[in-house]
Design goal:
The complex is a heterodimer of chains A (160) and B (788). Chain A has 160 residues and is an alpha+beta fold. Chain A contains 5 helices and 5 strands, in the order E-E-H-E-E-E-H-H-H-H. Chain B has 788 residues and is of the alpha+beta class. In chain B, helix 10 packs parallel to helix 18. The chains are: A alpha+beta (160), B alpha+beta (788). Chains A and B meet through helix 1, helix 2, helix 3, helix 4 and helix 5 of A and helix 1 and helix 17 of B.
């Protein structure tokens, strides 16, 4: 299949690549760029394990094509840690036991990364709605909500 | 109970933060689809659109003409090596790939091997198969009728679709108690087919190294050692030998029982790698996972409970039809075809009980695995907790009062149940009382009465469950003959650092942290000095794996015993170093000291070094131990859950207002992790109670084949769980622990159903099968003349 040239910035690094038009963004990230922190859980955009940030929006990379990322900037879970410092959300998940098997965690983190930028003082109910597109089978969500609150507080205090 | 160790040591009772988290939080976990080997090929599977059909022809020519498609593998190819069928864990047989007919929709029919996963998918589309549809059997009750088509024509002399009959208990005594009963209740309870749906699907990377003759398989398996043995037994005739098979369970994205069986995809990938000498990756997509991997439950139960008018329960009688799909591929201990369903007398002191189960073949995927449950315990708990509630309503007694009246009392333990289990310890009334206090039971009943007078629908439901976990004692528990022990191998190195390896495999339970805490508790090494490894059959000691809440009851016990062996040797070394008699030494966390002279002490780290640099004459050097722990009994965690629901009269929607869960899992290793397990378990109780079900139409088409319609609870539907605990240690476990991973999944659904029925009883509703969808409730309300 004929390939298409794209330029995409991932976690601050620009890549020029030739990709098949049908290549999914999640496979570009996981297989071409070997950033395997972004996971695949359902193929129908219900589970959110593949959530990444594209130009400031949380999107599901299993239902986006790599060519749609041409000229855009992507942040994945590997891009959250800065200068050896975990993002407050990563720290929140650690402190509040917001993860068990860890498979949904990158998606949960990326959804929260965008959500907390728009609302850094959310109610528990607002958090629950914000993560309603991310399924977790292990935690029962209670500690994920706490992890978001932990991060929100740190961010209000100027942690990020 | 206050921890014995300091937070820096981090032994039992400390909420130690998880050692596995840093890699997951950075996206640096290593799940099976992250494994990437040079020259790796991709396998994708062609699946049947029919539930029952003869395969007339498979034409692979268009597929193999696609550049990058290397081969199309069919049942006839595997038949040459006698690998087209494989045994199930229940000694039935299952097709790897079919030669002449398919038995369920989405069954594997052929496999495409290609250089790239997209090309493999192109190949799947291009394989052309001619089918001749056959009559489909979906309903297990119809499957038993004399005129039903016989499905397993591969089995010579098989004249019907009945797999096995199993019964347990005292039929005569039970029947007599029913004859004598002042009051009896009877109900048909269907516990539907559901699916664990871990967020990571199943898959593997198989790599056969032709030069070394060694097969390495990275695989989503909860039981790597057992899988290795199965591979050696099944494929020994084609040259796979157990010492040259290495199964690696990397990080696993949730298991819940779904990653216990051997699925055809694994076997085909291994065969493809052995034939090509190249690494082969096979990863399911979600539809394949939901439509073809092992289901759970699917029990059609008729239950009867007998008692007296004063609320004394006397006997339980159950008949069940178990729909196993086209083969019995359940994952039960071999002696128990219905798992541990016969723990169904639950928390109550009954005089007699009798249980019958009949397994049946239908045109559905095989399975009968647990759904975060110890072998059919959820089915057992659901039945007894529903029946107890039904009896309470029938005789007009409060549901809590009836439970209190019939609980096995603390002084009765160890308690021999009517169905022959020996419960180790319990204090059921204390757990229920705490739950009632926490939720404000009396006030809620008043509120309910007021609301009912106003026509509002509110219900309060209780579930006082008893679990049975930690399979199991070798006398009764084996899988394919392998006894269900588990193991720990602990090595202390000269600098006082420890590697501990286990036969289990975490899928999110936090073993890397909790096992390290046990080492810290027993030997006083700081938890950070202990590296826990599992899941590599080349390095870990043999064990049966992690499922049925068995890691804490079995492998954690092995860990404690191995640590105690090390401590015994450490005492000898300390005595030598201190020039004292062993009997004159006392242990305090992390050191031995001479009685009466606390200054004359050797730390465990000093002893570790001496074990390699200055060991006593006549004693072997080194400091390590192995234990294969054969538990003397199962453990019996328990709890009481209370759920409050409000029902919308207009839509039938059930809204869980509050849910209080009091659990008792004996002594706790890590309270933070235990609470997390309970939160997750409750949510996997909520899902089947209100949302999850897999159904088939009359042609055998699956109706919930993706996350579009198989509904997992999101954060919006999930209530803010309220948890609490009592602590009744297990008397036979070395740490007094019992296990907790599945209690909540087992106990929660009955509390929710009981709450819904409690809200609707005055409208004539006696029972609602799960999942209690809004549509079901809406119909019940309309039938009762209630309008929103």
């Amino acid at each position: 299949m004929a390939k298409v040239p794209i330029k995409v910035t991932v976690n601050g690094v620009e890549h020029s690549l030739d990709v098949e038009p049908r290549l999914l963004l999640v496979h570009l990230l996981r297989e071409t760029l070997r950033l395997t922190g972004t996971h695949i859980g359902c193929d129908t955009s219900h589970c959110g394990a593949c959530t990444v940030v594209m130009d400031g929006n949380a999107i599901k990379s299993c239902t986006a094509f790599a060519v749609q990322a041409d000229g855009r900037s992507i942040t994945t879970v590997e891009g959250l840690e800065q200068d050896g410092q975990l993002h407050p959300l990563q720290d929140g998940f650690f402190q509040e036991h917001g993860l068990q098997c860890g498979y949904c965690t990158p998606g949960m983190l990326m959804t929260g990364y965008v959500f907390l930028q728009t609302n850094n003082d959310p109610s528990d109910d607002e958090i629950r709605h914000a993560i309603s597109g991310n399924l977790c089978r292990c935690t029962g969500y209670v500690n994920i909500v706490k992890a978001y609150q932990y991060a929100a507080q740190k961010m209000r205090e100027g942690g990020a | 109970m206050a921890p014995k160790t300091s937070p820096e040591i981090g032994g039992m009772g400390h909420s130690v933060k998880r050692k596995e988290d840093p890699r997951f939080l950075r996206g640096l976990g290593n799940y099976v689809d992250d494994v990437n080997l040079p020259g790796m090929l991709y396998l994708d599977i062609v699946r049947s659109p029919y539930a029952h059909a003869t395969i007339k022809n498979i034409d692979s020519s268009k597929a193999t003409a696609i550049p990058g498609v290397l081969a199309v593998i069919t049942g006839k190819d595997l038949e040459k090596y006698n690998l087209h069928w494989m045994p199930t864990l229940m000694s039935d047989t299952q097709m790897v790939l079919p030669v002449d007919k398919v038995m369920y929709q989405a069954q594997e029919v052929a496999a495409v091997l290609a250089t790239d996963r997209y090309i493999a998918a192109d190949g799947v589309e291009a394989v052309e198969i001619d089918y001749d549809p056959l009559p489909v059997v979906v309903d297990p009750k119809k499957a038993l009728l004399p005129d039903a088509p016989v499905l397993r024509t591969d089995k010579k002399d098989k004249k019907d679709n009945h797999i096995w009959h199993w019964e347990w208990g005292n039929r005569e005594a039970t029947d007599q108690l029913f004859s004598d009963a002042e009051v009896t209740v009877k109900e048909d309870i269907y516990i539907p087919r559901i699916h664990v749906s871990s967020i990571e699907t199943c898959g593997c990377v198989a790599h056969f190294d032709k030069v070394r003759g060694k097969l390495t398989v990275w695989m989503t398996t909860q039981a790597p050692h057992a899988i290795r043995t199965v591979f050696a037994l099944v494929a020994g005739h084609v040259g796979l030998s157990e010492e040259k098979i290495q199964i690696i369970s990397p990080d696993i994205g949730g298991g819940f029982g779904g990653k216990v069986p051997v699925y055809p995809g694994y076997v085909i990938a291994v065969a493809a790698s052995v034939l090509t000498g190249k690494p082969v990756k096979w990863i399911e997509d979600r539809m394949e996972n939901l439509q073809a991997d092992s289901f759970a439950r699917d029990y059609h139960i008729t239950a009867e409970l007998a008692g007296k008018k004063d609320g004394t329960l006397t006997a339980l009688r159950i008949k069940t039809i178990a729909d196993h799909g086209y083969t019995d591929a359940a994952a039960n201990p071999s002696k128990f075809p219905a798992g541990l369903f016969h723990v169904c007398t639950g928390s109550y002191d009954l005089k007699a009980a009798h249980v019958e189960v009949d397994g049946v073949y239908t045109n559905k995927p095989p399975g009968g695995i647990a759904y975060r449950c110890s072998f059919r315990v959820t089915e057992a708990v659901h039945t007894i907790e529903r029946m107890t509630d039904l009896m309470a309503h029938e005789i007009g007694m409060d549901a809590a009062e009836l439970r209190m009246k019939n609980f096995i009392k603390p002084e009765q333990f160890p308690y021999k149940s009517a169905l022959d289990w020996e419960y180790d310890s319990g204090n059921y009334a204390a757990a229920l009382q705490l739950a009632m206090d926490r939720i404000g039971y009396a006030e809620l009943r008043k509120e309910q009465a007021e609301k009912r007078a106003r026509g509002e629908l509110m219900g309060i439901g209780i579930s006082s469950f008893t679990e049975i976990v930690g399979a199991g004692p070798s006398k009764h528990f084996d899988i394919l003959g392998i006894k269900m022990f588990d193991s720990a191998e602990i090595r202390v190195h000269p600098t006082g650092k420890v590697i501990a390896r286990f036969g289990t495999k975490s899928q999110g339970q936090g073993h890397e942290t909790t096992y390290a805490q046990i080492v810290a508790e027993e030997l006083g090494f700081p938890v950070d000095s202990v590296l826990v490894e599992e899941g590599d059959t080349d390095t870990a000691p043999y064990g049966l794996g992690t499922y049925a809440s068995r890691s804490t009851p079995v492998a954690a016990a092995a860990c404690a015993v191995a640590c105690r062996k090390i401590k015994d040797k450490a005492r000898k070394i300390a005595a030598y170093l201190l020039e004292a008699h062993e009997d004159d030494l006392e242990w305090e966390v992390g050191k031995f000291f001479v009685k009466g002279s606390p200054d004359r002490a050797k730390t465990i780290q000093e002893i570790s070094l001496a074990a390699y640099t200055n060991h006593p004459p006549g004693l072997e050097a080194g400091l390590e131990a192995v234990n294969y722990y054969d538990p003397p009994n199962l453990t019996y965690p328990f709890g009481s859950y209370i759920c409050v629901v409000d029902i919308d009269k207009g839509t039938g929607e059930v809204k869980i207002r509050r849910f209080v869960a009091v659990d008792d899992c004996g002594n706790i290793i890590n309270p933070m992790i235990v609470e997390g397990q309970i939160h997750g378990g409750l949510t996997m109780g909520l899902g089947p109670a209100l949302y999850e079900e897999i159904q088939y139409d009359e042609s055998g088409n699956i109706l919930q084949g993706s996350f579009m319609n198989y509904l997992l609870p999101t954060a919006v539907e999930t209530p803010n769980w309220e948890t609490d605990k009592t602590c009744t240690p297990s008397p036979h476990h070395p740490l007094g622990a019992k296990g907790v991973g599945e209690s909540a999944t087992v106990g929660a659904p009955a509390a929710i159903v009981n709450a819904v029925v409690d809200a609707l009883w005055h409208l004539g509703v006696r029972h609602v099968d799960i999942p209690i969808t809004s549509a079901k409730v809406w119909k019940l309300l309309r039938a009762a003349g209630v309008r929103g």
